[in-house]
Amino acid sequence: MTRDLYNVRAVAAPDEDQWAPTPLTPDEENRYLALLFGELGNQVADHGAATHPAYTTEDRRRIVEVGRRLSAHWGMPVRVEAVDTCRMRISVGTPAQPDRSA
Asked: 63: helix, coil or strand?
């Protein structure tokens, strides 16, 4: 299926040498957060954790928001942590405590 794209334009980045995508509209942002909530929530429910790419600050902000929403939805703590500079991990539960008996 071919779709026509209307009102699509490149926006100059602050340094003017590169181009950046246009920011999401509020409606697009809400739909994307709902998609992430469902997809990442299902992965966490099935496997206990999920990783997702996060190349920009906005991507990281969205994943943290999804973690907050999942925590409120499930009524249990959901951890969000950076795996590396390009990935974030969402998992349930609390971090493992080191053994201090020794």
From this structure: helix
